Structures are given as structure tokens and as C-alpha cells.
Amino acid sequence: MLTGMQIAVLGGDARQLEIIRKLTELDAKISLVGFEQLDHAFTGASKEKLGEIDFSIMDAIILPVPGTNLQGEIDTIFSNEKICLTEDIVSQTPQHCTIYSGISNKYLDNVVNSTNRKLVQLFERDDVAIYNSIPTVEGTIMMAIQHTDFTIHGSSIVVLGLGRVGMSVARTFSNLGAKVKVGARKSEHLARITEMGLEAFHLDHLPKEVESCDICINTIPTSIIKANVIAKMPPHTLIIDLASKPGGTDFRYAEKRGIKALLAPGLPGIVAPKTAGQILANVLAQLLEGDLDSGKESLS
Ligand code: NAP
Known about the structure:
By secondary structure, the protein is of the alpha/beta class. The protein has 2 domains: 6-124 and 272-299, 3-Layer(aba) Sandwich (Rossmann fold); 127-265, Rossmann fold (3-Layer(aba) Sandwich), CATH 3.40.50. The chain has 11 helices and 14 strands. Bound molecules: NADP nicotinamide-adenine-dinucleotide phosphate (NAP). The site of NADP nicotinamide-adenine-dinucleotide phosphate has 25 residues, from helix 4, helix 5 and helix 10.
């Protein structure tokens, strides 16, 4: 339970509603900023204006997945009000106050460093990334179906990268009956791909390996599907680039060659915002319970 905890939730999208639901169920006291247009009311959560919040009693601040922009502004789909997280606001919080965000940037790093507060980036955690790979794969299947005129079953699919997303993508497309090859650079990844019953190849041989590819799915967040790779693909190949912006594909060259290449960020929030929110809510609940326990220990 989170009884006695004071938490400020600043802005966000539908995923934040699952977080608010879970934390209020656990008896935390929540101040919501940027939710004026939300019809639903949660027992234990009150809608407030940023200027009305007493940050000196906050045990945690929860930001949306993208955190802030480079000017400190926080996006919200439930209000037209501008919310900005400043150094002044964070410095009003007690020393133990933890800031939770999906990811960070230079602005947010500077604010937490200059105020000496702890920042937890949920998307850096393996558990969050692995759970999140489930809706990501479902979104990738949706895109593959929408943008091709052939079945996944029986098609030749090249997956790039065997990280948390790559492994889930490769396994699921193989389970759907596709012929899946996975490209990686580490020998242990090549061994794991083989162990999974899939075809492994070293990324050095990428141009050759895409010669008969129907769908190429990239999870590597660096320039990898370069012009010399695209030049070898059959004209009907579909590229689905899952890597974070700007992706790993030479989109300009793909367009020039007439190869369809799609950058597909944020699939969990698009195809399954409820599940994506529950993934974050469950991990946050555990982390906040840990914060509460360590706070009690330091008082005893
Ligand atoms: P991850 O576990 O870190 O995996 C990244 C993979 O890329 C690893 O196999 C890594 O191999 C490889 N890699 C990284 N740099 C490389 C390089 N220079 N050359 C060759 N291989 C390289 O990351 P993840 O959690 O799977 O996420 C992958 C990407 O998808 C990220 O950009 C993430 O933000 C994005 N993502 C997108 C969505 C969406 O909806 N589109 C959802 C979730 C995540 P090594 O171990 O050899 O470095």
C-alpha cells in the first residue's frame, strides 16, 4: 500500500490514467496537474493548477513517458494549459522526492542534477522494456498486415538486432509461420538466434542477406539500413523501422528507390494504451512502495 504518500502527476496521455487508477487503489494521495478536461474522477486524486500545488509535501513527481521537452514543457492531452517543470518547482520538494519519467533529455537531467534529486527513467529498465515489447510486436504485426498484400506466414523476414524488442519480434513472426533471419554483431547473439531455431547472420553481411527479403524490421537505433543495403532489396520489400527517432533507415534513398519504409515510433501507446499504462503502473507501484519502505527505515 502507498498510504500516506503524496504524489504529483503532471500531464500525459491515456497511459497516465492507468497509473492514477493503480496508485489511488493503493491509497496514495494524488495531485493531478493538466487533467481539467478529464471527465473521470478518481477517489483520492484531485485536479489542481500547477501554481496551487504544495511541492514541499510531495514524495514523488510522475511525468509522462516523454518527460519534458527541451524547454521543460510537459505534454498533456487532457488540458490546454501549459505545464512547465522548472528548477524552482523541483527545489521546493523534500530531498527524498523522486522524479519518475519514461525517458530523459538534457533539460530534465540538468534540473535533477542542479537540485540534487533522483530521476528514475522507467524505459531504461529491462522489465519495462521487455513487457513493452509485447504491444510493440502486436503493433508491428498490424503494420505488416496493413502495408503488404501477402501473408506473414511463409514470407521472408529480416529482423535487425537481438535486444529486448528484436527478440520478441523475431520469435513472434517465426511463430506466425514466417521464415525469420536475424542480424546481430555479437557472437553470443548469433548463438542465441540459432538456439531459437532461427537463421543468424552477422550484420557485416547485411547487403547480401536482404536480397530476398519481403519485410525488414529494424530495432537497431543507429544508421544501419543504408543506401547500399536498400539497393539490394527486392522492390516489394517493406521496411518497418522500430528504432527510436530518427530510426536506422536511409528514408530518402528508400523513397528514391520506391521501397516503402515506415518509421513506427510509440506503438505500445498507439495499439494498446491501456496495457502500456498498466505496465508502467505496476512497475511504478513497486518502486514507490520501495521508496516508502526506505523512508520508514531511515526514520526508525
Ligand atoms: P536494446 O535491448 O538495447 O536492443 C538494441 C539492439 O540494437 C541490440 O541488439 C544491440 O546490439 C543493437 N545495436 C545497438 N547499437 C548497434 C550498433 N551500432 N550496431 C549494431 N547493433 C547495434 O533496445 P530495445 O529495448 O530492443 O529497443 C530497440 C529500439 O526500439 C530502441 O530504439 C527503442 O527506443 C525502440 N523502441 C521502439 C518502440 C516502438 O514502438 N517503435 C517500442 C519500444 C522500443 P549490441 O548488444 O550488439 O549493442
